[in-house]
Amino acid sequence: MSCAPAVANQILLFPYAKQGPELAALAHQYQDNRPFPHIRIADFLDPEAARAMAEEFPDPGTEAWTHYKHHNENKLGLAKRDLFPPHLGEVTDELNSPQFVSWLSELTGIPGLLADPTLEGGGLHQSGHGGFLNLHTDFSNHHYHKNWRRRVNLVLYLNPGWQEEWGGAIEFWEKSMCRCAAKYPPFFNHAVIFTTCEGSFHGFPDPLRCPPGVSRKSLALYYYTVEQNAKFSGQSTDYRARPDDGLLESALIWLDKEAVDLYSRAKSRFGFSDKFASSILGLLSRKK
User: Fold this and answer.
1) Is the peptide bond between 35 and the residue preceding it cis, with omega within 30 degrees of 0?
2) 3-state per-residue secondary structure call for 86-121
């Protein structure tokens, strides 16, 4: 019995030969960018790899998705690696591999980065017409590994033909929340990588204006360091209002943030699932 050559595996690996020689310049740019260290890299993967991933991206109607729908966000998430289609799964594994994590440590200047194979809070994300994600900083430590400190986010966009007028650009805001300092549309095969810290406020707070049947798709991966003796805050997702949001909207954002924080603490203690969380937060949102 003969086996066909593994062509797909050859095209899905991260293009180290292309990105490697540019690493020193990219690392310099990463540190210089404001309002916090970050970089946007176009043509992140080989076009064939990114195209294959986009073509097999799961339909939003499948039951595998967790619905995150409450006052501070409206999106779908799928973090179960064993449910990923082949191309998406293989690229996810590569971006969690020791070789890529070493590349990422050099890019960010953060030694000892650690991938999370459980994809806690990450994995596949998508939002359709009207979807949004309010400005926030991310949870600071892993829910199930108390000494894992979250350090880096990587978001790869898989949106062929995305139009800028549809919105959905990720916004990076100053810690003072006075203004948006950087903004990147979710164009196909563009990746945004940024340091996760108490001042890394980001999101896409304005509802998407894409046509019905179109969604903003991405693969999100988070990286950690092991902090055996460190004293870090252990904060949950910290949502913030924009200067023009008004008193009522600001109050609703704060109330929903408190609900998320309560759930996050319970999740860490009792091991609740995100599907349970999404149903509870959705109920609270409807009551408000």
Assistant:
1) yes
2) HHHHHHHHHHCCHHHHHHHHHHHCCCCCEECCCCCC
Q: What is the mean pLDDT of the chain?
A: 87
pTM of the model: 0.87
Closest CA to 182 of 36, 25, 80, 51: 36
For residues 172 and 36, the answer to whether their CB atoms sit within 8 Å is yes
Q: Taking the domains of the chain in order of start, what are their residue ranges?
A: 18-287
Architecture of domain 18-287: Sandwich (2.60)
**Continuous segment of H or E residues that includes residue 18:** helix 16-19
What phi and psi values does residue 136 have, to the nearest 5 degrees? -165, 165
Per the DSSP assignment, residues forming a β-bridge with 191 are: 41, 156
Is 280 in a helix, a strand, or coil?
A: helix
pLDDT at site 245? 95
Position 236 scores a pLDDT of 75
Q: How many CA atoms lie within 13 A of 226 on its CB side?
A: 6
- Residue 205 burial by CB count (10 A; 0-12/13-18/19+): exposed, middle or buried? buried
Closest C-alpha to 59, from 95, 83, 81: 83
